Amino acid sequence: MPDTAPPPPPLALLAELTHRCPLACPYCSNPLDLIARDNELDTATWARVFQQAADLGVLQLHLSGGEPAARRDLPDLVAAARQAGLYVNLITSGIGLTTDRLDALDAAGLDHVQLSLQGVRASVADMIGGYKGGFDRKIELAHAITARGLPLTLNAVMHRRNLDDLPETIALADQLGARRIEIACVQFYGWAQANRTALLPTREQVATAKRIVADAVPAYRGRMVIDFVPPDYYADYPKPCMGGWGTTGLNVTPDGTVLPCHAAATIPHLTFQRVTDTPLAEIWQSGPAFNAFRGHDWMPDPCRSCARRDTDHGGCRCQAMALAGDPTATDPVCRLSPDRPVVDALLADLPAMDDLPAYRYRS
Amino acid sequence: MTDDPIIRLPRGVRLHHDRVRNLPVLLGPERALMLDDIGLAILSELHDTPRLSSLITRLAARYDAPATEITTDVRAFLDDLQVQRLVDYDKESSDA
Question: Does B30 sit within 8 Å of A180, measured CB to CB?
C-alpha cells in the first residue's frame, strides 16, 4: 500500500449480533450461509468489542442482525455500549420487541431505533417478510417507540413490488411520528442477488420515485428528513461504497469475524480476522482484508486514471465481484466500465409484473 | 414557526467529546457532526431550553459580541440543524 497514509479512525461499527430472525425477507443482507446460534459471541465479548471500538474512534454503533431482539441480553449490550461512550442505534424488524423489552432498552440508554418496513399493507408486508402478523406488530411497536420519545427512523426497503406505494410509505412514516425515513432501494448482494429478477424495479418506477421524493423533501422539511437510495443499476456512476473501502466503518459478524462491509465475505480471496484472536485496532489498521482495496494501487483503468477516483473510489468491490467476477474490476454500474453491458442486459430483460418469479426465502 | 422559538436538543441528540479526535461532536440518528468553537458555544447553552432571544443575549454577553451581529449566524446555524431534526423549535415549553 505504498500510496496510502494510515487509515483515519473509523466512525461506525455495525454489530451483527445474530443471524437469527423471525422474518425471511428475500433481500436479506445476511450471507447465504448463516452463522448458527452456538457460534455467536457472548455478552462479555461483545462488550469488549464495543470498548475497543470506542477506543479506536468509533462514535456510532449499529446493533443489527438478523433480528437483534432475538438476543436475550440486548439491554445488557446496549448498556455496555453506552458505558463505552458509543451512540447506540438499534436496527430492528420490531418482531420480538415487547413494550417491556423496549422499556428495558430505553432504561439502558438506547439512543435511536431504525425500524424496517416491508410494505404499507399487511398483505404485502407479511408476504415479503414471510411472517404473518408481522406488519401489525411493527406498527404497534412504532407507536410505542415514538410514545417514549425515542427517535424513530423508518427504513423502507423498496423494490419492484412496493416502489409504487412510495407516497403511502412516506405518509405512513410521518403518521407514525418518524423523524426520518430512509427509502432504500434494494442493493443486490446475497439473498437480494438470488432474488434479483423479482426485485429489480423498472426504469419508469425509478423515475417516478425520484419525482415523488423531490416533491416530498420540501413538503416535509423541518418535520421529517427524507433520505433516498436509488437502485444503482440505473445510475451512470457507481456509489462511493462505504465512503471508500476501509475508511469509515467496520462490520462484525455474529461469530466475531471483522469485515470491511457486510458483503465482503463474498470476495473469495480475502482473509478475515476475528475479534476473539486479534485486537480490533490491529484489524482496522493493518488487517489484510482492510488493506486490500485502500488507496489506488489496486485499481485498474479506467479507475486509476479517472478524475472521479477519489469521489466514488471505483464503486463497490462486492458488486464488481458479483457482476464481473473480479473484485478489482471497475464497478460494472459505471458507464466507463467495460462490463456495463452486463448491467444493461439485466435491465433490458425484466419480466412483466404478473410474471415475476417466486421469492426464494432464507430458511 | 414562531420568531422566538424555544430551542431544545431532542431525545437522541447529544453533545459528546470525541477523545480520539479531540473534538466536540453532536451525535444524532445516523449523524456525527464535528463542531467548531462557535457551534459548541451555541449548543452548550441549550441545557435549559432557552428561547432564541435569551440564547442570543447570553451568547452576546459571554463572548462580548453585539447581539445584532450574531443573531443571523446563530439562527442560520440552528435552522440548518432543525431541518435535520437535530434541534427542535417549540412554541411553548412542554415542562412549564
Answer: yes
Quick check: B29 and A153 CB within 8 A? Answer: yes
How many beta-carbon pairs under 8 angstroms link A with B?
Answer: 60
Which residues, in sequence order, are CB contacts of A56 under 8 Å at separation 6+? A9, A10, A280, A281, A284, B20
CA angle (A275 as vertex; A153, A107 as ends), nearest 5: 40
B10 contacts A179? CB cut-off 8 A: yes
ipTM for this model: 0.92
How far is the C-alpha of A250 from the C-alpha of A290, rounded, in Å? 9
Which residues numbered 32-71 in B keep a CB inside 8 Å of some CB on A? 32
Residue B1 has pLDDT above 80, yes or no: no
Instruction: With beta carbons under 8 A apart, name residues in chain A contacting B10.
Output: 151, 179
Domains annotated for chain B, with CATH where assigned, are 6-86 (1.10.10.1150)
Cβ contact, residue pair B16, A59, below 8 Å: yes
Return the residue of B nearest to A82 by Cα: B16
- pLDDT of amino acid B91: 81
Nearest CA in chain B to A111: B12
The pLDDT > 70 percentage for chain A reads 99
The two beta strands, A249-252 and A12-16, are parallel
Beta strands A257-259 and A273-274, pairing class: antiparallel
Question: What are the E-state strand segments in chain A?
Answer: 12-16, 60-64, 87-92, 112-117, 152-158, 180-185, 225-229, 249-252, 257-259, 273-274
A4-46 pLDDT tens trace? 578 999 999 999 999 999 999 999 989 888 999 999 999 999 9
* A222 to B82: CB separation less than 8 angstroms, yes or no: yes
